[in-house]
Amino acid sequence: MNKKKAVFLDRDGTIVVHEPYLSFPEQLKLLPNAAEGIRLFKESGYLVIVITNQSGIARGFFDEERLTLIHKKLMSMLKDEGIEIDDIYYCPHHTEGIIETYKVDCDCRKPKPKMLLNAAKQHDIDLSQSLMIGDSEVDMLAGKNAGCTCVFIKDVCNKDSGISPIGTDYIVKDLLEASRLFTQGKIKNLSDR
Ligand SMILES: [Mg+2]
Ligand SMILES: [Zn+2]
Q1: Which one in 38, 85, 131, 185 has a CA-CA gap of 20 to 30 Å to 73?
Q2: Predicted pLDDT of residue 162
Q3: What's the gap in Å between 135 CA and the centre of ligand 1?
Q4: Quick check: helix, strand or coil at residue 93?
Q5: CA–CA separation, 151 vs 172, rounded Å?
Q6: Segment (H or E) for 52
Q7: CA 2–ligand 1 middle distance (angstroms)
Q8: Catalytic site residues?
């Protein structure tokens, strides 16, 4: 059996509008073209897995129970668009947190690759055929550290967005552009690059 390919997606600023320390399900707003992009990836046989740093837990802004509700809501919003994502991994830690249990220098917080490596193990994923897509440098570095191809979502409103972070392989404006790039024959085989 061949291993599967996956697209790992950052959450805030990639799938949903970035709200600092988003703490309530009601704050979730899908970004334009995000659902459509995820659909294209799914239709092309990619597993879709969310990889998100949620230090708001360590910082005491919300707890894991709340985050579970937020992610349930996210999944139901996507389900309304006819999309099922395959999994969500999050890191609740931060060294400057105030909640003792989570105040650790963990090995899962992006740019470390542990969440991607765990997902690869649990879902039988070939990381070298997989993508990490996100809107910040830690996403690109986590992807690189895991051996994935990294796609940077450039905030079009950001004036100094001419620079792309270290580790970036491709720059796109949103998830739909990313999905077209990889599923509609523009790049047939990642290993042929
Ligand atoms: Mg982000
Ligand atoms: Zn962590």
Answers
A1: 131
A2: 62
A3: 5
A4: coil
A5: 7
A6: strand 47-53
A7: 31
A8: 10, 12
Low pLDDT (below 70) residues in the chain = 156-162, 185-193
Q: Give the Cα separation of 144 and 91 in Å (integer).
A: 18
Delimit the domains of the chain by residue range: 6-186
Please give the DSSP secondary-structure letter assigned to residue 29: -
* Greatest Cα pair distance in the chain: 49
Cα 11 to ligand 2 centroid, rounded to whole Å:
16
Q: Return the pLDDT at 156.
A: 64
- Residue 93's Cβ-side half-sphere holds a number of Cα atoms within 13 Å equal to 16
What homologous superfamily is domain 6-186 in, according to CATH? HAD superfamily/HAD-like (3.40.50.1000)
Please give the distance, rounded to the nearest whole angstrom, from the Cα atom of residue 174 to the centre of ligand 2. Answer: 27
**Percent of the chain at pLDDT above 70?**
91
Kindly give the distance from the C-alpha atom of residue 107 to the centroid of ligand 2, in angstroms, as a whole number.
Answer: 6
SS3 53: strand
Element (H, E) at 178: helix 175-183
Q: Specify the pLDDT at position 193.
A: 42
| Torsion angle in degrees (nearest 10) through CA of 70, 165, 110, 126 | 90
User: Which residues lie at CB < 5 A from ion ligand 1?
Assistant: 10, 12-13, 135-136
Instruction: Kindly list the protein residues that place their beta carbon closer than 5 angstroms to ligand 2, a single-atom ion.
Output: 91, 93, 106, 108-109
* 109 alpha carbon, closest ligand: 2
Packing angle, helices 175-183 and 34-43, rounded to 10: 20
